[in-house]
Design goal:
By secondary structure, the chain is an alpha+beta fold. 26% of the residues lie in helices and 22% in strands. It contains seven helices and ten strands. It binds a DNA duplex through loops.
DNA sequence: ACTATCCCCTGACGGC
DNA sequence: TGCCGTCAGGGGATAG
């Protein structure tokens, strides 16, 4: 499940390939992946140069010549791949973007068909505002996080998963973060002292930087644009480890259902 | 403000 | 072997 580190890894892979290339064709094999008007999407993209690649939270952006942008969200099983232009598409390949004088193509693949691409009408800022996305988790500052958590009675896990609080954390990194911080996923946001929020913000940035350094977590479907798996799954401490001893205190890791998600934590050293 | 539930979708997995 | 039910989960919508 791509979260911020996986989307950042994809963005970096695309930055080495896309900028400066001009789109020659868009082949759509499953129009449902295009959240905006599919005909308009293809018309606008064709003939346009890609100028850059951006990211906010779990959203990936392709910046096109003329100020238009495409937003991509991979949801659970979406993949963005760079493949030889003649590679045969498999049954989960929903969209291909071809480029002028280029032997490779951009492929959007998604087993579960939850992921979406969308041609934006306005600016990235307008899109983030309309989607009510919070600040990007990779660079969130303590003051901003404190403002967004203070006085909230909801649990930390629910708040951190909520993309309008903070954009980029998903189920895996939230559980790992709360384990590192020795905080219970059910701990109320309002109960955190200011210095705890400061440590939490620093912990979020550090965890995400480390995961990006390992090129993300490959548990089910995630691979980078070259088809390579990440390595952060080798360092997970609690996620998916129900019954294993806590690496800090030895108590058994428990799995509970919190904020609508399977949640792993240590019942002894997280409070 | 916040929670719960459903939906989208497919592959994996357990039970029989 | 094979059939069937269940589950997983990001995020949007909707009900409470």
């Amino acid at each position: 499940m791509p979260e911020l580190p996986e989307v950042e890894t994809i963005a970096r892979g695309l930055r080495a390939f896309l900028p400066g290339r001009t789109i020659s064709a868009v082949r759509c094999r499953f129009p449902g992946v295009i959240a905006s008007d599919p005909g308009c999407f293809q018309r606008v993209l064709r003939g346009r140069r890609v100028e850059g690649v951006g990211r906010h939270g779990k959203y990936l952006f392709l910046h096109l010549q003329g100020g238009r942008s495409v937003a991509v969200h991979l949801r659970m099983t979406g993949q963005v791949l760079i493949q030889p232009v003649h590679a045969p598409p498999d049954s989960h390949c929903h969209l291909e973007i071809l480029f002028r004088r280029c032997a490779r193509k951009l492929v959007f693949r998604d087993v579960r068909k939850f992921g979406r691409l969308q041609l934006l009408e306005g600016s990235i800022e307008e899109f983030l505002c309309a989607r009510r996305l919070g600040p990007d988790a990779l660079t969130v500052r303590a003051e901003e996080l404190h403002r967004r958590l203070q006085g909230r009675k909801r649990g930390l896990k629910a708040a951190l998963l909520d993309q309008s609080t903070l954009a980029g954390l998903g189920n895996i990194y939230t559980d790992e973060l709360l384990f590192r911080q020795r905080l219970s996923p059910l701990r109320s946001c309002a109960s955190l002292r200011r210095e705890q929020v400061t440590r939490l913000a620093a912990g979020i940035r550090a965890l995400l930087r480390q995961a990006i350094g390992k090129e993300g977590t490959s548990i089910s479907d995630y691979v980078d644009p070259r088809g390579r798996a990440g390595r952060f799954q080798l360092t997970l401490k609690v996620y998916g480890r129900a019954g294993s001893p806590c690496p800090r205190c030895g108590a058994g890791i428990v799995r509970r259902w919190i904020a609508g998600r399977g949640t792993w934590s240590c019942p002894r050293c997280q409070s």
